[in-house]
Design goal:
single chain, 870 residues, alpha/beta, MutS, DNA mismatch repair protein, domain I, Nucleotidyltransferase, domain 5, MutS, DNA mismatch repair protein, Chain A, domain 3, 6 domains, seven-stranded mixed beta sheet, six-stranded mixed beta sheet, 32 helices, elongated, DNA_mismatch_repair_MutS_C, nucleotide-binding
Length: 870
């Protein structure tokens, strides 16, 4: 193979490939992208395309395969989905003017997060590149959606917060320092899963280098001008992204015009477990949008609105004024049905302006994209007139942010044909009447082709040869073809050009002159159309900032109309949101479960949580009765209120939460050697370390993964800790099958017992789904087992065993369970049990009493005597 590798073309290929060893190199050769050697072997399998070779059968055979340049995108997308990078190598000079081998170079490297073609992007999903950079216990994070130009950075106080951010963003690609990629922390690795990971060299994280990149990119003198501290870990994280773009995207990327610093304290903190448990954007079982809170609330009609709503759900607010602004806007649209419906109808005609703007800025837009931009801009004046009398501050701001770009709209309308072709190089894009020279060239082209037809008819008549034809090919241009049997009739002015099997080919001076005129006009038409289109695209790119503001305003309007529509259709109420501790929900419902057709009416329930008498709600009751639904609906209602959404209840007052924690269900992590119980304890420990009095905690069946006494002890201690530890006094929903925990309400003033009402009938249990005060006496586990289809023999035997256990049990009063060795043990106020071992003297005294013969005074004296004995 050595001699074949030393040809000029293969030398060029190998030199370029050496600069991109970790990418599959798409090497442009004419109308194809070719792949060679190992790249060809790999790509042919992944793409299911034919593998062939140069010098086939020889000792220096070189494997290669190729794909057409005009339909390359689906092939690139398949390689990206398979986890590979693709380097696109173009011819960077005109082959007609090249001396020797055509110059080629890589113009871009496509990675999972650097894909910008619409066909490879999910309309409702952001395509984030997330850069993470550790700095002691803190982490810097920067995330970019290249398709829209969104670029944000943040400083995170811990690895847990970093993992939570990564879970909320669900990036398509992670960018890490080499050391972190090599040995990622366990908590981060769990969230990252199998997402593609790229690296930057350690020297890229130098703060001076990062500061220079940031300042050059955004045209500022110092990072502080963007709100970015030079000492912050977010600075090298953002510098890493800009360096990565420089290395892989050799373009100016003008749509990256701003960097936003995000403070994590502006948003409700949600760890990955809570996001998964509450099924905010996808279901746990199938990882689908349908069945999640997002699926329930999403009535948006634009891709921009869908993406932004997902961001709202992932990052609820904690600032009351901004929440109230959103609620005001939703309320106004909920009350104005006709306006809301008309707004939704107009928004349906809006294309994805964010990604259109990105493609225009990166010179990737075609004629169809500009027509889509025109169609969208034409809706703006109508929307502005529709919203002229709206009163809410947020809607007015959205209306004022919209820019119809009248001049650009007019120019696109005059320049681009209604149905432009996909290709930019073959003409047919620019409309008649837009450019005088182009119109003239088209006239020449049309008349020239007509001349050829007329010339053919005239020559047939002049020569008497009926089979005479005027043909065209790329090698010889236009020529007159005469069969050999008719050569005797060829005129003297015909000039012989070529002999073929059954005919001779000729030209004339007249034909040659017209050929130059016609073909020159057609080539000039294509070049001029492309030039005119580029000018128009550049003009559109110059309006990128206005397009970005307009897209953001439209996305916000889309979300507001969608939330208002859901509120009206499902009878949601506007919550009162404040900075207090009280969460009071009247007739609350689970938004997702309520929307499902489960064959029974959803039963609403009240909730009262505060920092006083109702800090912890201890909820007992059987399985399947609705405890988990009740707790999750409370958490979702709080979260919905902080999104700025109406909530499924008759009324609701929500004291803002800074964090929501959940510990629900069983799960293990066998790959990390963690049992179900270990995972449960780790999640609980995380809650106890991080919860505050402003937090909302949902705990379901703490301690069930170990023995009864161990589990009960842990659950008891956790409840006490949440109640007694001042810095961790979170509002808590605590569901349990340990009925003994209900005794805590007698010794802890801020614990309230609730249970799920049930009725027994003919040894069957009927779930009433209603939460009522009090505690359950037992769990009805055997009845639930019968409903699950357990064999009858097992059910009967379980009843016998249960009876034996119950008859042998000792009553466990509070003094035994609540007993503490602490010097500051909390005193118990309940009645002393008469049936403890130390009560023998009382038993003997009571046995001797004749109650029926006592006078009231004697009874009082006896009571005093018994009290002294105690």
């Amino acid at each position: 193979m050595s001699s074949a590798l030393h040809t000029p073309m293969m030398k060029q290929y190998l030199e370029i490939k050496s600069r991109h060893p970790d990418s599959i190199l798409f090497f442009r050769m004419g109308d194809f992208y070719e792949m060679f050697l190992e790249d060809a072997l790999l790509a042919s399998k992944l793409l299911d395309i034919t593998l062939t070779s140069r010098n086939k059968g020889g000792a220096d055979e070189i494997p290669f395969c190729g794909v057409p340049y005009h339909s390359v995108q689906p092939y690139v997308a398949r390689l990206i989905e398979a986890g590979h990078r693709v380097a696109i190598c173009e011819q960077v000079e005109d082959p007609k003017q090249a001396k020797g081998i055509v110059k080629r170079d890589v113009v871009k490297v496509v990675t999972p997060a650097l894909v910008t073609e619409a066909e490879s992007l999910a309309p409702e999903e952001n395509s984030y590149l997330l850069s993470l950079c550790p700095s002691g216990p803190r982490w810097g994070a920067a995330w970019l959606d290249l398709s829209t130009g969104e670029f944000k950075v943040s400083e995170l106080e811990s690895l847990s917060a970093t993992a939570a951010l990564a879970a909320s963003l669900a990036p398509r690609e992670l960018l890490l320092p080499e050391a972190v990629k090599r040995e990622p922390p366990a908590e981060l690795a769990l969230v990252m899963g199998d997402r593609p990971r790229s690296t930057v060299p350690d020297w890229v994280l130098d703060r001076e280098y990062a500061a220079r990149l940031v300042c050059d990119r955004f045209g500022v003198a110092l990072p502080e001008a963007l709100g970015l501290s030079p000492a912050a870990a977010a600075l090298p994280a953002s510098g890493a992204i800009l360096h990565y773009l420089q290395e892989n995207r050799h373009a100016t990327l003008p749509h990256l015009r701003d960097l936003t610093v995000v403070s994590q304290t502006d948003y409700l903190a949600l760890d990955p477990v809570t996001r998964r448990t509450l099924e905010l954007t996808a279901t746990m079982a199938e990882n689908k949008k349908a069945g999640s809170l997002l699926g329930c609330l999403d009535r948006t009609v634009t891709a921009m609105g869908a993406r932004t709503l997902k961001q709202w759900i992932a990052h609820p607010l904690v600032r009351t004024p901004e929440i109230v602004r959103r609620l005001d806007a939703v309320e106004e649209l909920a009350r104005a049905g006709e306006l809301r419906d008309e707004l939704a109808r107009l928004l349906k005609n809006i294309h994805d302006l964010e990604r259109l703007n990105g493609r225009i800025a990166m010179a990737g837009a075609n004629g169809r994209d500009l027509r889509s931009l025109l169609d969208s801009l034409e809706q703006i004046p109508v929307i502005q007139r529709l919203l002229v009398d709206t009163r809410s501050e947020l809607i007015r701001e959205c209306r004022d942010s919209l820019d119809p770009l009248d001049d650009l709209r007019d120019r696109i309308g005059r320049a681009i044909v209604p149905s432009p072709p996909f290709s930019l190089r073959e003409g047919g894009i620019i409309a008649e009447g837009y450019h005088a020279e182009l119109d003239e060239l088209r006239t020449i082209s049309r008349e020239g082709k007509g001349f050829i037809a007329r010339l053919e008819a005239r020559e047939r008549e002049r020569t008497g040869i009926g089979s005479l034809k005027i043909r065209y090919n790329r090698v010889f241009g236009y020529y007159i073809e005469i069969t050999k049997s008719n050569l005797s009739g060829v005129p003297a002015d015909y000039i012989r050009r070529q002999t073929v099997a059954n005919a001779e080919r000729f030209i004339t001076e007249e034909l040659k002159n017209y050929e130059e005129k016609v073909l020159g006009a057609e080539e000039r038409i294509c070049d001029l159309e492309y030039s005119l289109f580029q000018e128009l695209r550049e003009e559109a790119a110059a309006h990128g900032a206005a397009l970005s503001r307009t897209a953001a305003g439209l996305a916000l309007l889309d979300i507001l109309q969608g939330l208002a529509t859901v509120a009206v259709e499902r009878n949601y109420c506007r919550p009162t949101v404040d900075d207090g501790d009280r969460i009071e929900i009247i007739e609350g419902r689970h938004p997702v479960v309520e929307a499902m057709n489960l064959g029974e009416r959803f039963v609403p329930n009240d909730t009262l949580l505060d920092g006083e008498a109702h800090q912890i709600l201890m909820i007992t009751g059987p399985n399947m009765a609705g405890k988990s639904t009740y707790m999750r609906q409370t958490a979702l209602i709080v979260l919905m209120a902080q999104i700025g959404c109406f909530v499924p209840a008759t009324s609701a007052r929500i004291g803002i939460a800074d964090r929501i924690f959940t510990r629900v269900g069983a799960g293990d992590n066998l790959a990390r050697g963690q049992s179900t119980f270990m995972v449960e304890m780790m999640e609980t420990a995380h809650i106890l370390r991080n919860a505050t009095p402003k937090s909302l905690v949902v705990l379901d069946e703490i301690g069930r993964g170990t023995s009864t006494f161990d589990g009960l002890s842990i659950a008891w201690a956790v409840a006490e800790y949440l109640h007694d530890t001042e810095q961790c006094r979170a509002r808590t929903l605590f569901a349990t099958h340990y009925h003994e925990l209900a005794e805590l309400a007698a010794s802890r003033e801020r614990i309230t017992n609730l249970t799920v009402a049930v009725r027994e009938w003919n040894d069957q249990v009927i779930f009433l789904r209603t939460i009522v005060p009090g505690a359950a006496s037992h769990s009805y586990g055997i009845q639930v087992a019968r409903l699950a289809g357990m064999p009858a023999d097992v059910i009967e035997r379980a009843k016998e065993v249960l009876k034996n256990l119950e008859e042998g049990e000792f009553e466990q009063g509070a003094p035994r369970i609540a007993k503490s060795h602490r010097k500051t043990a909390i005193p118990d106020s309940r009645q002393f049990s008469l049936f403890e071992p130390q009560g023998d003297l009382l038993r003997e005294r009571l046995k001797k009493l004749n109650i029926s013969g006592m006078t009231p005074l004697e009874a009082l004296n006896l009571l005093d005597e018994l009290k002294k004995m105690v």
